[in-house]
Fold:
Amino acid sequence: FFSPGFQVAPETKAVMKWLRSIPFVLSASLHGGELVVTYPYDYSRHPMEEKMFSPTPDEKVFKMLAKAYADAHPVISDRSELRCGGNFVNRGGIINGAEWYSFTGGMADFNYLHTNCFEITVEVGCEKFPLEEELFTIWHENKGALLNYMEMVHRGIKGIVSDKFGNPIKNARISVRGIQHDVTTGN
Structure:
């Protein structure tokens, strides 16, 4: 998952352990520097290839999740606006991460490959490091979109996997026909 010789920081190891210990299903990483929602994979299938579409087996689900956020964001969903030097209007405010730019070691890819958690990355504004007085506006631009995204937790498969006595089965593998990516039940 990480490049050879890559040292994982202690706080990154702690987050990885935390993600594996709690059965999260959705997460979002908030960044600055653009107005777009990206989804995995963020690392190109061909490491030397930049801007190469690299879908996961759950491409349709990730697009649905990214659109749920983008469509509820007042600026990302504004079809008349050119923003931040990049134009994602024609894409509906979303893009596959590796198609935008490929990088290794991202949390969205880690979550998808090593946990049950589906993560999107939200670029919340044109400024990489917004000024303190801009934060209130950024919060209000993203609040409804975040709530809309959180409601997506009710989409898809949910329930309890149990034995014939009704006891929950821990670490049962759930497979969906046609999607080469399984998830496992929690505790």
In short: Residues 45 and 54 are 6 Å apart (CA to CA). Residues 135-151 form the longest helix (17 residues).
